[in-house]
Design a protein that fits this description.
The chain is globular and about 55 Å long. It has a domain of 149 residues: Rossmann fold (3-Layer(aba) Sandwich). It is α/β, with parallel strands linked by helices. Strand 4, helix 5 and strand 5 form a beta-alpha-beta unit. 30% of the residues lie in helices and 17% in strands. The longest helix is centred in the last third of the chain and has 12 residues. Bound molecules: S-adenosylmethionine (SAM). S-adenosylmethionine binds next to strand 1, helix 3 and strand 2.
Length: 216
């Protein structure tokens, strides 16, 4: 069932999502449906979203939820849904998840929405997701709100970091003014919606063939 229909008819645990997120989820996550995706959701809330992802991705998927609230442990189902308790900004904890579950194919950050936490998770996890992985950050309206360490054009805001990453994505063309990075060579695309940033990996070759097709 499409995610949106499932969300509308869900009478199980509460799912806390904005309506316009659903087309974006379908666009970026549908390639993992019925695959053996290892999916990490940061922030379990009332547990309904973990069940939604399980139904959406199908019987081979492994859904990992993390939260600082130990009551979320109850959302593990002993089958496809695993919950671990920890802080999304604690890289030791994040490493323990990779040690236990292997690299994630997709990450959805719906945790604290605090800029330094989003950044800590992204900086650690993005380089470690699989080579065609997807990293999805939602509720980025907080990037404009002081109480989440955000603010319009404030350097600490994750949206401001995304603006820098656009340059990093294009660093090969900066005529030496900036050096390409692992982000440059591994990132296929970046996408923005109201309150959402999505990063898709997918490069395994040079961006142009030697001698041929190189843009002037
Ligand atoms: C918006 S709710 C998640 C909603 C859920 N994903 C859904 O769609 O229904 C945010 C969750 O993030 C958790 N959280 C807050 N700070 C956190 C942190 N530093 N690390 C991990 N989880 C955190 C909260 O306890 C809360 O359960």
């Amino acid at each position: 069932m499409p995610l949106w229909g499932d969300f509308l008819t869900n009478d199980g645990r509460i799912v806390h999502k904005w309506k316009h997120y659903f087309p974006a989820y379908e666009r970026h996550f549908s390639k993992f449906v019925n695959s053996d995706v290892v999916f990490l959701e940061i922030g379990c809330g009332r547990g309904g979203s973990l069940e939604l992802w399980k139904r959406y991705f199908g019987p081979h998927a492994r859904i990992v939820g993390i939260d600082i609230d130990s009551r979320c442990r109850a959302f593990g189902d002993g089958d496809q849904i695993e919950v671990r308790i920890g802080d999304q900004s604690d890289v030791g904890f994040l490493q323990s998840l990779i040690d236990e579950f292997g690299p994630f194919d997709a990450v959805l950050d719906d945790g604290s929405h605090v800029m330094s936490h989003i950044r800590a998770s992204f900086d650690f996890l993005y380089p470690r997701i699989s080579r065609n992985g997807v990293y999805f950050v939602e509720d980025l309206h907080t990037a404009y709100w002081d109480e989440y360490e955000g603010g319009l054009r404030r350097k600490a805001s994750f949206i401001e970091h995304c603006k820098d990453l656009i340059d990093e994505l294009n660093a090969d063309h900066a005529r030496g003014e900036m050096q390409p990075t692992a982000f440059t060579s591994s990132t296929l695309s970046m996408h923005f919606y109201d309150s959402i940033a999505v990063f898709e990996k997918g490069r395994t070759t040079r961006k142009w063939a030697p001698q041929v097709g190189r843009p002037d």
